[in-house]
Automatic annotation (TrEMBL), chain A:
Keywords from the UniProt entry: Transferase
Lineage: Bacteria, Bacillati, Bacillota, Bacilli, Bacillales
Keyword DNA repair: no
Biological source species: Planococcus koreensis
Protein name as it appears in the record: Heptaprenyl diphosphate synthase
UniProt-recorded Gene Ontology molecular function terms: heptaprenyl diphosphate synthase activity
Automatic annotation (TrEMBL), chain B:
InterPro entries reported in the protein's UniProt record: GerC3_HepT, Isoprenoid_synthase_dom_sf, Polyprenyl_synt, Polyprenyl_synt_CS
Name listed for the protein in its UniProt record: Heptaprenyl diphosphate synthase component 2
Cofactors that this protein relies on: Mg(2+)
Function: Supplies heptaprenyl diphosphate, the precursor for the side chain of the isoprenoid quinone menaquinone-7 (MQ-7).
One of the GO BP terms on file: isoprenoid biosynthetic process
A GO molecular-function annotation: metal ion binding
Family: Belongs to the FPP/GGPP synthase family.
Enzyme class: transferase
Length: 258, 324
């Protein structure tokens, strides 16, 4: 399977997911479901790597993506603002997507998977809430929480179908993507819950930027090593390497520092 | 007081309901102290526990085993709780049942995570039951409840909507989950198909009546009785049955139309509440509620007589007459 075919497959699954959660009013007034292609890639990775795959497994993979979209919608609900139509419908979008995930798995009698995902939803919600309490203080704790938020749902899928061999690589790459977004946000003077917590801990945005850059560098090295240990096809390895861009942010920092 | 009266109606279920209450507390136990506090805050605000009650009562028409029944009763109440905590974010509500909402006590994000957490617990709990049919019914209900709320937002501030729009909305918003409580309770108890169907319809009709009464009480109860300002639904742009009837008077129509286009002072809010309360709209709305109530009672006529049927009948009558 070449890179183009990998892209096509991801697009096809993405289209199915978007179709499953389509709702006229939600599509019109909210930002729509967030379906990250990087996550979809990891959900379909066993298929790309010629592991056991079926329409039922693919359906499960799609529901995992829907649950991510549900929880992501609720992350977009803002504090300290009046509930306008967009905010109200964003709340309902998350609930609606959760209902769709439940229904899709109930239709194929995959009750065990519904339960696994429910447990993952609990853990992710607990971790997200921890950003609003004093439970996490150190950067290591923040890092652990982010890893869990990014991968818990995916791991419930991997563990259920016996695809744990991809877990380590997935955590590295999905965390890499997350920190890349956080760095982007920081460098554009934006804010996020994670950035606020990091800057609280490190005491200055510049320290947060440095921490993120160092983290991305070390993750990049580890990703390269880990890809090397897998017996992936040449095309699959290439595809993954093209998903990470190691020096862009460092360049941004250097430019600003003159 | 009314809540106490209502609970007296199903006092014969008290040991089982106490067990359900304990299970609910355990179910919301969380590793996150924040979610633990927020969930308990919500749980301890109380509620009529009408959904678990209907699950248990419906179970009496089959082979009743509390250990099986609680597997449906607990998650249905959790699903209801999860929707309440999210609804308070949607409605920007500061108070519920006389106490601060989760969003007011903490913030919107904590309310979102609390709702997601409670929903997760509900699904984790109910998936111990290996019945595809049960899960298909419940998941479809959850989707319809959301659709009902989406429609409610679409229909906000639209004074010219019709009765059908309103009924379609409350069916999804309230009646379906009560209907499913009866249906699923009967289903897990192994009741026969006809009984399940009668109970499903009973729940649907009672749910419709219940919501209409709720909408009436928004105008006829005091702020203290409601635990929130009277007329809140209207202030938020929700066009409920009393409003649909009251607008037939051209003078009231103009008042309502103007009121929907501005932010109301407290005096203006109380004036509207009084106008509606004094109009014939309340009686007209009560008549619709009674129609649904009678239909619910009609469904009970098809079921075997016994304590469960008697309690359901008493609850139905109470719902029709409750004061808040």
């Amino acid at each position: 399977m070449n890179e183009q075919q990998i892209h096509s497959k991801i697009t096809s699954v993405e289209t199915d997911v978007l179709k499953a959660v389509k709702q006229r009013t939600l599509d019109k007034f909210t930002d729509g479901p967030s379906v990250l292609r990087a996550r979809l890639f990891f959900l379909i990775l066993p298929f790309f790597d010629n592991k056991m795959w079926s329409t039922d497994i693919e359906r499960s993979a799609k529901t995992v993506s829907i649950v991510y979209a549900a929880l992501q919608a609720h992350d977009l609900v803002e504090n300290d603002v009046l509930a306008d139509k967009k905010q109200q419908l964003t709340v309902l979008a998350g609930d609606f997507y959760s209902g769709i995930y439940y229904k899709m798995l109930a239709e194929t009698n995959n009750i065990a998977m519904i339960q696994r995902l429910a447990t993952a939803i609990i853990k992710v919600s607990e971790k997200k809430a921890s950003f609003y309490s004093s439970e996490i203080r150190s950067m290591d704790e923040i890092d652990e929480a982010i890893k869990q938020i990014e991968t818990e749902l995916l791991f419930s899928f991997y563990n259920f179908y016996g695809y744990q061999e991809y877990s380590h690589l997935a955590v590295l790459m999905l965390t890499y993507n997350r920190y890349t977004s956080e760095l982007d946000c920081l460098q554009k003077d934006g804010q996020s819950l994670a950035l606020r917590k990091m800057t609280q801990t490190l005491r200055h945005p510049l320290q947060t930027e440095r921490w993120l850059l160092d983290k991305l560098d070390s993750l990049y090295e580890e990703i390269l090593q880990t890809i090397g240990t897998h017996n992936f096809s040449y095309e699959l390895k290439n595809f993954m390497l093209h998903q990470i861009t190691p020096h862009q942010h460092r360049a941004e920092q250097l430019t600003r520092e003159g | 007081m009314e809540k106490v009266k209502m609970k007296l109606l199903y006092s014969d279920l008290k040991p089982e309901l106490d067990l359900i209450e304990k299970e609910l507390e355990q179910a919301v136990d969380s590793e996150s102290p924040l979610l633990n506090d927020a969930s308990l805050h919500l749980l301890q605000a109380g509620g009529k526990r009408i959904r678990p009650v209907f699950v248990l009562l419906a179970g009496k028409f089959g082979t009743y085993n509390i250990d099986v029944m609680k597997q449906v009763a607990v998650p249905l109440e959790l699903i209801h709780m999860a929707s309440l905590v999210h609804d308070d974010v949607i409605d920007d509500s500061e108070m519920r049942r006389g106490q601060l909402t989760v969003k007011a006590e903490w913030n919107n994000s904590v309310a979102m995570y609390t709702g997601d957490f409670i929903l997760g617990r509900a699904l984790e709990y109910i998936t111990d039951i290996d019945s595809p049919r049960l899960h298909q019914v419940l998941s479809q209900t959850m989707i319809e409840v959301c659709r009902g709320e989406i429609i409610q937002i679409e229909d906000k501030y639209k004074l010219d909507q019709n009765l059908r729009d309103y009924l379609r909305r409350i069916k999804r918003k309230t009646a379906l989950l009560i209907s499913s409580s009866c249906e699923l309770g009967a289903m897990v108890a192994g009741a026969d198909e006809k009984t399940i169907a009668h109970l499903r319809r009973f729940g649907y009709f009672i749910g419709m009546s219940f919501q209409i009464i709720d909408d009436i009480l928004d105008f006829t109860s005091s702020d203290e009785e409601l635990g929130k300002p009277a007329g809140s639904d209207f202030i938020q742009g929700n066009i409920t049955l009393p409003i649909l009837y009251a607008r037939n008077n051209p003078e009231i129509y103009r008042l309502l139309k103007d009121s929907l286009q501005k932010e109301l002072t407290d005096a203006e809010r109380l004036h509207i509440v009084k106008v509606i309360r004094d109009s014939s709209a309340i009686d007209d709305a009560k008549k619709v509620s009674e129609k649904y109530l009678n239909k619910a009672l009609g469904e009970l006529d098809h079921l075997p007589k016994g304590q469960a049927s008697k309690t359901m009948r008493k609850i139905a009558f109470f719902i029709g007459k409750r004061k808040f």
